[in-house]
Structure formats: structure tokens, C-alpha cells
Design a protein that fits this description.
Strand content: 15-25%
Order of helices and strands: EHHHEEEEHEEHEHEHHHHEE
Radius of gyration: 17 Å
Pfam family, one: LigB
GO molecular function, one term: ferrous iron binding
InterPro entries: Xdiol_dOase_suB
Keywords: Dioxygenase, Oxidoreductase
CATH class: Alpha Beta
Oligomer: single chain
Number of helices: 10
Helix content: 25-40%
Distance between the termini: 10 Å
CATH superfamily: LigB-like
Shape: globular
Mean pLDDT: 95
CATH architecture: 3-Layer(aba) Sandwich
Protein name: Protocatechuate 4,5-dioxygenase beta chain
CATH topology: Protocatechuate 4,5-dioxygenase, Chain B
Length: about 280
């Protein structure tokens, strides 16, 4: 059967790609952020996962305020990036995965989730920045990607417990897939940040560290928060923790943290990185 070998959490802010384009990785502002990624890249090179399930949120490129699905899953053979107006260079086409993605969709619907199924979708920086961080030479064509998009922009948004349950359902679907593929799951975005309003620039490093701790040891404790709690504790964009919870929900076996980093501020966010090794139950 297919198995989930691990999970990776990472920021997806547009400024990351701009810094990479301009060769700023070793400058004082960025050094501590980028220096944390080589161990994760090394792990990916050693493990050679076949498929990446990437939880992300679309920031208006494909799903604007007039059409905003709560949950959406890509089932396409490939995905293109497009200009979002951030000044980020587009990246090469991302290879899609069709068999497992359709299996996941069917299993989700069978178990009372109703995602929007996307057979033609462009992906924005929420998905492309993490790929570029993990594969800075953009040599990711071998990796088949399943995008899972979560609404983190427009209320009403899915609450943390529902997003975690979505992850659990996706994890069970992967475990029931009749193949020997190795799957890695990304939770992108976050952590605490607020980009506008009276609290613009707000970062809660203590809360961020608590979330990273609980993500390993007691993820269900985080599902007790409401989205309003996340906004209060983590800023108006702190609800992106939902992508991390979706990722963590997919891993139902033993989870061990093997790498962590936290830097703040990075482009007015608390930027967390975690590498979690997963040993599936058998």
C-alpha cells in the first residue's frame, strides 16, 4: 500500500522567491531563514518520495472572492504557475498525479467530505514557493503533486477541527491506495502574521512555538481553537495554521520531529519550518 513517510511545514510568503531570484539567501536578513532548509532538502534526496500532497491556500490567482470553495483538490496531469502581481518569476510546470488524487476524492466523498474537484487549475505562491525552497534548482519534475487548497481568505472558513479531520480522511485514503508509492505531505503558510489593519506587523512568537510543539505531541489540542482564536492569537492571517493541521492529520502513526527552525520577523511573519518523520501503523 502507499505510505506517508513524513510531513514538512514551511512558510510560503512571496518575498522568499524574490530573495532567491536576487541571490539574497546569505544576507543578514535572510541567512537564518535559508540556512535551515538544507537538512530538509537532504532528507528529500535520501527518501525520494514519489508524490507530494501540498496543503496551501490560493490568494486570488484561481479562486477569488466571487468563487471560494472551502476545500478544493487538484486532479490534473500538470499545473502551471501564473503572474500574481507580486513580481515573482513563474516556475516550470508542476507534474500532477491523477490516480491517487482521484482515489482521494472518491474516498473523501464516500466519507462525507465534498471537495471541489479541479481538473484545470493554476497554482499560486502558496504551492510554488515551498517547491522552490525544497528544490532550489527547480529539479522537481519527478515529484508528482496533489494540491489541496483550503480557504483561509474569506469568511466563513473551515474551522481547525474540520481541517484536521480532512487531513485524517486524506491519510486514510492514501493508506487504502493499492500501490507502493512513498508520499510526503506539506503544510504551508503561517505562522502568526497580520498584514493589514491596526495590528499590521503583529507576531506572537510564543504562540508559534507552542503550535510547533503541539503539532508533534498533541495536534488535537490545536483543533480546539476557533478561527477567531487563531486571529486573536496569531493575527488575521494566522488562520493559515489550518494548512499545517491538515498536513498533520494525514499522519496516523508515530510522528517524530527531526528538524525545526523558527525565524521572526520574515516579511512580517513568524516563519516556521518542521520536518516530521512518520512511521505508519501496520
Amino acid at each position: 500500500m502507499a505510505k506517508i513517510i513524513g510531513g514538512i511545514t514551511t512558510s510560503h510568503i512571496p518575498a522568499i522567491s524574490n530573495a532567491m531570484e536576487r541571490g539574497l539567501e546569505d544576507t543578514p536578513y535572510w541567512r537564518d531563514f535559508f540556512a535551515a532548509y538544507p537538512p530538509v532538502r537532504k532528507w528529500l534526496e535520501e527518501q525520494q518520495p514519489d508524490i507530494a500532497i501540498i496543503f496551501y491556500n490560493d490568494h486570488g490567482l484561481e479562486m477569488f472572492l466571487d468563487k471560494k470553495p472551502t476545500f478544493a483538490i487538484g486532479c490534473a496531469a500538470e499545473y502551471e504557475n501564473a503572474d500574481e502581481g507580486w513580481g515573482i518569476a513563474t516556475i516550470p510546470t508542476v507534474t500532477g498525479e491523477t490516480e491517487l488524487s482521484w482515489h482521494i476524492v472518491n474516498e473523501l466523498i464516500e466519507h462525507d467530505f465534498d471537495p471541489t474537484v479541479c481538473q484545470d487549475i493554476k497554482v499560486d505562491h502558496g504551492l510554488t514557493v515551498p517547491l522552490r525552497l525544497m528544490y532550489p534548482d527547480q529539479n522537481y519534475k519527478h515529484l508528482k503533486v496533489i494540491p489541496v487548497c483550503i480557504n483561509c481568505e474569506r469568511h466563513p472558513m473551515p474551522k481547525p477541527s474540520r481541517t484536521f479531520a480532512l487531513g485524517e480522511a486524506i491519510g486514510k485514503a492514501v493508506e487504502s491506495f493499492p500501490g507502493d508509492e512513498k508520499v510526503v505531505v506539506f503544510g504551508t503558510g503561517g505562522l502568526s502574521h497580520q498584514l493589514d489593519g491596526e495590528r499590521a506587523g503583529f507576531i506572537n512568537a510564543d504562540f508559534d512555538e507552542e503550535c510547533m510543539d503541539k503539532l508533534v505531541s498533541d495536534p488535537k489540542a490545536l483543533t480546539k481553537y476557533s478561527n477567531y482564536d487563531l486571529v486573536r492569537l496569531g493575527g488575521s492571517q494566522g488562520v493559515e495554521l489550518n494548512m499545517w493541521l491538515g498536513m498533520r492529520g494525514t499522519m496516523t502513526g508515530h510522528v517524530e520531529e527531526i528538524h525545526r527552525n523558527y525565524v521572526a520577523p520574515i516579511s512580517n511573519t513568524g516563519a516556521g519550518l518542521q520536518l516530521l518523520r512518520h512511521t505508519p501503523k501496520r
